[in-house]
Design goal:
This protein is mainly beta and 355 residues long. It has two helices and 21 strands. It has helices spanning 9-16, 80-83; strands spanning 2-4, 21-29, 35-39, 49-54, 91-103, 107-116, 130-137, 140-145, 170-172, 192-194, 197-202, 208-218, 225-230, 239-245, 254-255, 261-267, 275-282, 297-300, 306-311, 323-330, 337-346. The strands form four sheets. Strands 1, 3, 4, 6, 9, 10, 11 and 13 form an eight-stranded antiparallel sheet that branches. Strands 2-5-12-7-8 form a five-stranded antiparallel sheet. Strands 15-21-20-17-18 form a five-stranded mixed sheet, with no helix packed on it. The longest helix is centred in the N-terminal third of the chain and has 8 residues, at 9-16. The chain is elongated.
């Protein structure tokens, strides 16, 4: 693993930006050397690249894990929003990246790993290093932490994710003093980490939200913790597209008078509200002539993950070969094309029967 310091707030925010989001107004409030970018890709840090925020120096994150207590006290203040989280009250050496993000769909998400040198010796103590991803804006009456343990509302901290608590989300990286030490450059110096987790929020399309990403030491400022956030994973794609046929396996194409095509619209977060998805129809086949006419929108019902658009080919007795139907997913904000999927229609299969 390699890290780079002296990266601007704007560059860090842009590094995270992926499909369906626009970031702006980035502000960085960290100690010197406490933020930057990383590049790696191993079993111990299965993220290729991204940004790192640390309660100490990001260079401390680089392995191998050959120290019993790596870290740097920056003698900086903590963060009031972190202090308000359950079981967190007295943070130090806070590193904060804030920025605005405009979303195009009804969800906002990104991938991350939290790691710390506090593992495992200080699990269950006051040294409960913590981090949070706070979101505020329409629908959120106060800054809300979305860095939570999957299926719960419990924040990810040293005391909450470890071998005795939600162990399925914990990864051990050794203790730093038991030989042999790993020489794999992908290993971290930190003694433990989470698996890759996803932070997710249900948002209102076309609105602007404020994100605050923060990590800090708890109670003291000695041993470091860090959070790795995957490059390009901050996204608001909302809906994905796929295609199949009414028969399924063995029939990749729709067939006139025989096999219908199915375009499936799947939303990334199921909510209690219906979702209207707008799309554009293209391809070489003519809507309403080569297949039963379809509109330019589809509704995914409440509490349902997906809906199918049926492409029913019309038998026209014309030898046309393969024709295509392309569905373009449109942004609710700007109307621009976000994604597409193509289905092919083949001519009617005529049987030649001999008696």
């Amino acid at each position: 693993m390699s890290v780079s310091e002296a990266v601007s707030a704007d560059a860090l925010a842009e590094k995270l930006a992926g499909v369906g989001v626009t970031v702006s107004g980035a502000i960085l409030n960290c100690g010197a050397g406490a933020s930057g970018t990383f590049s790696t890709g191993t079993a111990y840090l299965p993220l290729d690249s991204g940004i790192i925020l640390s309660s100490g120096l990001i260079t401390t994150a680089v392995g191998p894990n050959n120290e019993t207590g790596a870290g740097t006290d920056l003698f900086l203040p903590g963060d009031a929003d972190l202090n308000a989280l359950p079981a967190v009250s007295s943070t130090n050496d806070a590193c904060v990246l804030e920025f605005d993000v405009e979303v195009i769909a009804d969800t906002l998400s990104f991938n991350y790993i939290f790691a710390s040198e506090e593992y495992l010796e200080f699990v269950g103590t006051l040294y409960n290093d913590a981090f949070a991803f706070f979101i505020s804006g329409p629908g959120f009456t106060m800054p809300t932490n979305i860095a939570i343990i999957p299926g719960t509302i419990i924040p990810v901290t040293i005391n909450n994710v470890n071998p005795s608590s939600f162990s399925e989300f914990y990864v051990d990286n050794g203790d730093g003093f038991t030989a042999p030490f790993s020489t794999d450059p992908g290993y971290m110096q930190y003694d433990g980490s989470t698996v890759v987790l996803e932070a997710r929020a249900v948002v209102i399309p076309c609105e602007v939200y404020h994100l605050k990403l923060v990590v800090a030491d708890e109670f003291d400022g000695i041993l470091d913790s860090g959070v790795f956030i995957e490059a390009g994973s901050l996204s608001s794609s909302g809906v994905s597209l796929s295609s199949t046929t009414s028969v399924g396996f063995g029939f990749d194409n729709a067939i006139e008078g025989c096999v219908d095509g199915l375009i499936t619209f799947t939303r990334t977060a199921v909510t209690d509200s219906a979702l209207v998805v707008n799309f554009e129809v293209g391809g070489t086949a003519t809507n309403g002539l080569d297949y039963t006419a379809v509109s330019s929108s589809i509704v995914i019902p409440p509490t349902v993950a997906s809906a199918d658009l049926v492409i029913a080919p019309i038998v026209d007795a014309l030898p046309e070969g393969l024709e295509s139907v392309t569905i373009y997913l449109l942004s609710e904000c700007s109307g621009v094309r976000l994604d597409s999927v193509t289905l092919f229609i083949q001519d009617e299969i005529l049987l030649d029967i001999e008696v």
